[in-house]
Amino acid sequence: MSMPSYHRENLRETLLELAETTVRTTGVESLSLRQLARDAGVSHGAPARHFRDRQALLDALAFAGFERLNHELTDIPAVATSFEARFHALAAAYVQFAVDNAALLGLMYAVKHAEGASESLLAAGRSSMDSVVAIIAEAQAAGEVVDGDPARFALVVFAGVHGVASLATGGLLDGVTVEDATAATAELLLRALT
User: Residue 125: how many CB atoms within 10 A of its CB?
Assistant: First the structure.
């Protein structure tokens, strides 16, 4: 692993980038602050200025992951105008994020559901679901989606697209492309909602 250059003010970001690379390549179990310090070319105590322990690093990594995912999902309304286009774009964005960041996504949900997860992490984790709820509620107000609890509908939508992502990252789509599986799932969900 090549050592990134850093300045004192961006050591935290450098450590998070290195941590994400480690999670992606060798798994979360191999992540250690001491190894990150070596990879960053800093003293073994330097990471402690930013992360009190390994769990704090995992929390920060999960939070950063949720922020990236939420950014991807909240950008959807800006690029798609119709509910159908936004819905398909939302499904595709989530699945693509999950496929591109499978190990990170696993860590994000594990940390979010761990006992003692911080309120800020829980809020970041809920925000992606809130994006789906908002799009569904808007479409209901416009008469494009059937009446019902938008949060309940969002949960079903999430289950469907997360299922596609899980099948894709597990190599279980049996020759169907991720794009086709995502589009088919989104289309079936749309039919149920409209």
Answer: 21
User: Tokens in use for 132?
Assistant: 């789906």
Could you give the angle at the alpha carbon of 60 between the alpha carbons of 58 and 62, nearest 5°? Answer: 70
Residue with tokens 């704090």: 56
Which residue, chain included where needed, has tokens 């499978």? Answer: 102
| Residues recorded for the chain | 194
Number of domains into which the chain is organized: 2
Residue 3's pLDDT band, with cuts at 50, 70 and 90, is very low
Round to whole Å and give the CA distance between 165 and 163: 5
Domain that holds residue 18: 1-51
Tell me, yes or no, whether 31 and 72 share the same domain: no
Q: Any alpha helices (H) in the chain, and if so which ranges?
A: 11-26, 33-40, 54-74, 76-79, 83-100, 102-112, 119-141, 150-169, 178-193
Do 126 and 141 lie in a common domain?
Answer: yes
Predicted confidence (pLDDT) per residue in 9-67, tens digit: 689 999 999 999 999 999 899 888 988 989 888 988 888 889 888 999 999 999 999 99
pLDDT for the residue numbered 78: 61
Residue 12 belongs to domain with CATH number: 1.10.10
